[in-house]
């Protein structure tokens, strides 16, 4: 992601309660394309609810918009798809949707949620982070 233009930038962060062991957390690494009001990058869901797999990696794209009011100055939406395994008694996988949404301040702290497969996580903390799985940066 070297060819960033003008005010474009990279950001890493998390959605979820990182202080509770086993809680589902979505870590993101995004390229923010300000002139296009767009974001794209990678999300890694850890401690996923179904416990059939370890981390789920999703390539995402979405939108970022300025709000113009309140302490949350931006809203972000992300969408992507990933391969979801079926139960251990069955073989195979299917393409599942991932969605995320959050309201953040100028330093990428705020509140939001995400959904994967049949689960919806809402009203969780969003925070900027320097940590992200190194192999995905």
Structure description:
This is DUF1842 domain-containing protein. InterPro entries: DUF1842. Residues 9-118 form the DUF1842 domain. The protein is mostly beta strands. The protein has one domain (9-128). The chain is built from no helices and eight strands. The protein has strands at residues 9-15, 25-33, 38-46, 56-66, 74-85, 93-104, 110-116, 119-128. It has an eight-stranded antiparallel β-barrel with strand order 1-2-3-4-5-6-7-8. β4 (56-66) and β5 (74-85) form a beta hairpin. The model is unreliable at 132-137 (pLDDT under 50).
How would you sum up this structure in a few lines?
The chain is mainly beta. 0% of the residues lie in helices and 56% in strands.
- Distance separating the two termini: 9 Å
Shape: globular
Indicate how many domains the architecture comprises: 1
Secondary structure class reads mainly beta
How many strand units? 8
Largest sheet: 8 strands, antiparallel, barrel
Reading the helices and strands in chain order gives EEEEEEEE
Mean pLDDT: 86
Q: State which percent range the strand residues make up.
A: over 45%
> Largest beta sheet: what is the strand line-up?
1-2-3-4-5-6-7-8
Q: Cα-atom Rg, whole angstroms?
A: 15 Å
DSSP helix fraction = under 10%
> Which parts are unreliable, with pLDDT below 50 for 5 consecutive residues or more?
132-137
Number of helices: 0
Question: Please, what is the oligomeric state?
Answer: single chain
Brief descriptors of the model:
137 residues, 0% helix, 8 strands, disordered C terminus, mainly beta, 8-stranded antiparallel barrel, globular
